Every structure is written in C-alpha cells, then in structure tokens.
C-alpha cells in the first residue's frame, strides 16, 4: 500500500486572508455530489494558494527535512498524550512497511510520513513536529490502524474524532491518491474560515470539507490534481 506514496507552529506560516470573493459552493447529498456527505468545495482556494514564510530558518528546515529518513522519530513520545482506539482498515498485500512513506515536495505539502516499528509518524513538513502516531498491525490482506496518539492530555471527544478522521484522510489521499472530503471542526462557521483552516492543515491535498465523519467513505476517485 505505502509503495504508492509519491506524492505547529502555524504562526510562522504566512497564509493570506481568504478573499470573500472566492466562489465556494456547498453541495448537498445527491446528484452532482459523489459523496454521501454534505460538502464544501474549497478548491478555488486550496489549489491556487502559495505557501510562504518570513522566517528563513523555517524554509531551511523544510529543505533539510527533504533528506530525512525519519529514523530520528523512532522512540518519540509526546510529553503528554491522549490515546484513541480505532479500527481503520486498508488493503495491503505487501510485507512489513519501514521507512519513508511520503515526503512533501513543495511548501504547499504539509506532511511527511514515516513508518518505523509498526508506528506511522505523521510529521509536519515545515516544523518537524509530530502531529499523530498511528499504531498498525497486519493481516493477510490488510493493514489496520488500531490506535492513534495525539499530543495533549484529556482531549475532548470532538478533538479525538478529528484526529481519527485526519489520519484516515492522510492515508487515503497520500497512499491511495483518493479525492475525498476531510472533516472540519464545528467551530468553523464561514466558508472563508473553513478554506483557511483546510489549507493550513492539509495544503494542496484538500479539495472538499465536511462537518461529518469521513472514515466510512469509499475511495472512489484517483487524485490527478482534483
């Protein structure tokens, strides 16, 4: 599965304010919407936005991290953490996965992914901060994520839900090249807030947003630039 991977300090990142003139559209479930969720089309922003930073150290760190194998994350633990049990299952007929899963190519790509000792490390490409640790097992034809760790104690149920959905979204879009919506927090109200949040978290790899869970979505489309 992961052979197909080819493709927080957010204050250091410069994202222009989303112009309210962007043409964002909500699509209800039904004709013209291939998903069984109500979605917001945020492509007019996420597919055109350019990421920049005013801090040359951040830019250099991004470039340096393009050479990393991720071995420095082996044994990494959050200072405080919340563990979330889950059951995310993906087709996988290969052997044990080790090493680089996905590397950001440009600054509009927000994640690097490494797999070591049956743990997937989801690392922010700009800052090298670990966002999620996903613990995996294998069956004859599947890879199973059975636990996710996130930074911070006593995370709310909604934050845990976002973590599970984000891990699923990253695996689906970066491993399988799927086009699908990602889940957004309920406190985001305006279309512009949603678009800015989405680009900040996922960069150019997000196209649609929804308030609903996405872990039960079927992978229906190949990402060819959305």
From TrEMBL:
<protein>
    <submittedName>
        <fullName>Uncharacterized protein</fullName>
    </submittedName>
</protein>
């Amino acid at each position: 599965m992961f052979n197909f991977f080819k493709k927080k300090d957010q204050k250091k990142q410069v994202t222009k304010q989303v112009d309210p003139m962007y043409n964002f559209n909500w699509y209800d479930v039904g004709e013209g919407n291939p998903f069984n969720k109500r979605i917001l089309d945020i492509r007019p922003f996420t597919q055109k936005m350019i990421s920049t930073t005013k801090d040359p150290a951040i830019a250099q760190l991004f470039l340096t991290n393009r050479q990393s194998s991720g071995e420095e994350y082996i044994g990494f633990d959050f200072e405080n953490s919340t563990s979330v049990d889950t059951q995310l299952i993906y087709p996988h007929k290969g052997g044990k996965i080790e090493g680089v899963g996905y590397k950001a190519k440009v600054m509009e790509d927000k994640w690097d992914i490494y797999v070591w000792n049956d743990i997937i490390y989801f690392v922010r490409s700009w800052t090298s901060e670990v966002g999620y640790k996903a613990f995996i097992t294998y069956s004859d034809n599947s890879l199973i994520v059975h636990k996710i760790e996130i930074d911070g104690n006593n995370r709310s149920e909604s934050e845990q839900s976002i973590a599970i959905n984000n891990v699923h979204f990253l695996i689906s879009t970066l491993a399988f090249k799927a086009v699908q919506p990602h889940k957004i927090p309920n406190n985001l109200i305006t279309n512009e807030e949603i678009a800015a949040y989405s680009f900040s978290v996922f960069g150019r790899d997000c196209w649609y947003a929804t308030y609903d869970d996405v872990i039960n979505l079927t992978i229906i489309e190949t990402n060819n630039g959305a």
